[in-house]
Amino acid sequence: MASLVIAEHDNKVLKEATAKVVTAASQLGGPVHVLVAGQGAQGVAEAAAKLQGVEKVLLADDALYAKMVAETMETLILSLAGKYDAILAPATTNGKNYMPRVAAKLDVAQISEIIKVVSADTFERPIYAGNAIATVQAGAGKKVITVRTTTFKTAGEGGSAGVEKIGAASDPGLSKFVGEELSKSERPELTSAKIVISGGRGMQSGENFHMLDKIADKLHAAVGASRAAVDAGFVPNDYQVGQTGKVVAPELYIAVGISGAIQHLAGMKDSKVIAAINKDEEAPIFQVADYGLVADLFKAVPEMEEELTKLGY
Amino acid sequence: MKVLVPVKRVIDYNVKVRVKADQTGVDLANVKMSMNPFDEISVEEAVRLKEKGKATEVIAVSVGPQQASETIRTALAMGADRGILVKTDAEVEPLAVAKILKAIVDEEKPSLVITGKQAIDDDSNQTGQMLAALLGWPQGTFAHKLELGDADAKIEREIDGGLQTVDVKLPAVMTVDLRLNEPRYASLPNIMKAKKKPIAEKAPADYGVDVAPKLKTLKVTEPEKRKAGVKVKTVAELLDKLKNEAGVI
Ligand SMILES: Cc1cc2nc3c(=O)[nH]c(=O)nc-3n(C[C@H](O)[C@H](O)[C@H](O)COP(=O)(O)OP(=O)(O)OC[C@H]3O[C@@H](n4cnc5c(N)ncnc54)[C@H](O)[C@@H]3O)c2cc1C
Ligand SMILES: Nc1ncnc2c1ncn2[C@@H]1O[C@H](COP(=O)(O)O)[C@@H](O)[C@H]1O
How far is the CA of B129 from the centre of ligand 2 (A)? Predict the structure, then answer.
């Protein structure tokens, strides 16, 4: 019952999502190996080798894997699949991109975004924007799983697995990476931040998001948004929290000028504490908020910044 | 070039989903059903390609019950040329849908298949990628922008860190994200016209595909409900609660 975990990284840093998937994989019972596919990713492999519960790290270091292009990831993972009963990846845009290709080629269903390992072949996953939870049992064949990382603990450090270098698999030559435009931010990543402050259509403009930035800087928070705020062009697409955006579960989620549509709630309702600021006391967000403030955000948010300063933040 | 657009009939995104008391699934009796919202974006993109003279024919396909023909009609009213309904009352998993679509692609030979990134009922986010793999084609998932050439397509993708552009050889599969376009509403004359457009009726067996599920759903339950908390009167009170009661700042 060996498992292969596909590491999420940017060639420099091993993403925390990987350590969460390792936890999920450990719960399947067998040895856990991690595949680091990248370019110049030796450091990432070394970081993965330190994760508790990892027995071995496979490092495929090649220009082919610089950007985890789906078609090349498929052939690489398939070349290794024979030795494993389960293959797991985080439900990031990378994992969602290459894993279904692997599942299709192995002729198995992919089990998407599991939130719980019930037993070695049985898992819970949310459906209908998290309004229902399905318990599914895998049939014969290998298990191909993506993991929603918000519900699994981060595997600790202290392990000392070996790193084995492996060669590149064949290049299907079907697609190539052209370029990317990454949002630059000094703040923590949305999916791993302890505090998230998100703005919605109520923010009215991208300029106004700077009010949230100031709070975020004080609280070491990440800034997120509703779909309406992204569609309106206030903030980039990678800010979107929700059913079809990012799923977050921070210690504190502050929703500002967000009504609380089910598609938004799907992405944040597992946060430990939810606070909401909305001028409409009937807004559905208040049905899930631990602390609700009915107020005009254009008054409340600057006031919050002042109060935080007074409190020494 | 031909463009194939798979469209799924799903519970309308505005409907409040209820889990059945016997835990076998969610209650779909008498609830409003619509085209998966992402698939509206796919149809829109395909129709625009036709309007720009890049696509010659747009074919809408749905795998589902008889009523899925209404979903196909919606696509036809938006501007697709003809439809294929692969009729089955069974719940069909993404892999089986992908196999059926592959068989249709083998017959129809489109240069581009445009799917939604995710069906809002099963939230699987798999079908397009699986189809691409079965065909041995490249994919551009979570598309934000498409630049279609004669032999390749430049696809800008929404990724966790921002945007990424890939260049894929045609034929290819593209799955669409929310910001690719804004789908049109079908006009009344076009709805009338759509009634005359042909929809071929098939069954999974016609394509030699076994749709028996590979995953067994043991039960479907309600998620834990969050309780509404308290209303605070001032910003100072909010911060006090967050700091001293919840201990999260
Ligand atoms: C296929 C599909 C996928 C989707 N995926 C997502 C997703 O992943 N994430 C997501 O968020 N949404 C998603 N949506 C959209 C979702 O249905 C809602 O439309 C969206 O969440 C609404 O965003 P909002 O709350 O910012 O805007 P609105 O619903 O317009 O709410 C704005 C709120 O701001 C308040 N407000 C306005 N001005 C002020 C002020 N001055 N002070 C205080 N409060 C103020 C208003 O009272 C209102 O409650 C999806 C929809 C579809 C169809
Ligand atoms: N039964 C179906 N009929 C037609 N298209 C489908 C069907 N199921 C999935 N699709 C397509 O695949 C996309 C992704 O679905 P999923 O993989 O289920 O999240 C959808 O947006 C549709 O474009």
Answer: 11
Residue B7 near residue B34, CB atoms below 8 Å? no
Q: Which residues of A241-267 are buried (b: 16+ CB within 10 A; e: fewer)?
A: bbbbbbbbbbbbbbbbbbbbbbbbbbb
Let me know if domain A195-310 sits in CATH 3.40.50.1220: yes
**All structural domains of chain A with their residue ranges:** 3-165, 195-310
Q: Please tell me if the domain spanning A3-165 has the same topology as the one spanning A195-310.
A: yes
| Residues B137, A174: C-beta atoms closer than 8 Å | yes
Choose among A10, A122, A307: nearest Cβ to B239: A307
pLDDT of residue A1 exceeding 80, the answer is: no
- HEC-encoded secondary structure of chain A: CCEEEECCECCCCECHHHHHHHHHHHCCCCCEEEEEEECCCHHHHHHHHCECCEEEEEEEECHHHCCCCHHHHHHHHHHHHCCCCEEEEECCHHHHHHHHHHHHHCCCCEEEEECEEEECCEEEEEECCCCEEEEEEECCCCEEEEECHHHCCCCCECCCCEEEEECCCCCCCCEEEEEEEECCCCCCCCCCCCEEEEECHHHCCCCCHHHHHHHHHHHCCEEEECHHHHHCCCCCHHHEECCCCECCCCCEEEEECCCCCHHHHCCCCCCCEEEEEECCCCCHHHHCCCEEEECCHHHHHHHHHHHHHHCCC
| Chain A residues inside the 8 Å CB shell of B159 | 93-94, 180, 238
Angle value at C-alpha B138, between B137 and B141, nearest 5 degrees? 130
Residue-wise pLDDT for A184-224, tens only, equals 888 999 999 999 999 999 999 999 999 999 999 999 999 99
With cut-offs at 50, 70 and 90, classify the pLDDT of residue B158: very high
Considering the domain B2-246 in this protein, what is its CATH number? Answer: 3.40.50.620
The average confidence (pLDDT) of chain A is 97
Which pLDDT tens digit goes with each residue over A261-292?
999 999 999 999 999 999 999 999 999 999 99
Determine if residue A129 is left, alpha or beta; phi over 0 gives left, psi from -120 to 50 gives alpha, anything else beta.
Answer: left
**DSSP one-letter code for B71:** H
Assigned fold of A3-165:
Rossmann fold (3.40.50)
Return the structure tokens found at B198.
């042909």
Question: From the CA of A231, how far away is ligand 1's center (Å)?
Answer: 10
Q: How far is the CA of B161 from the centre of ligand 2 (A)?
A: 25
Tell if the CB–CB gap between A104 and B223 is shorter than 8 Å. no
Distance (Å, rounded) from C-alpha A71 to C-alpha B140? Answer: 10
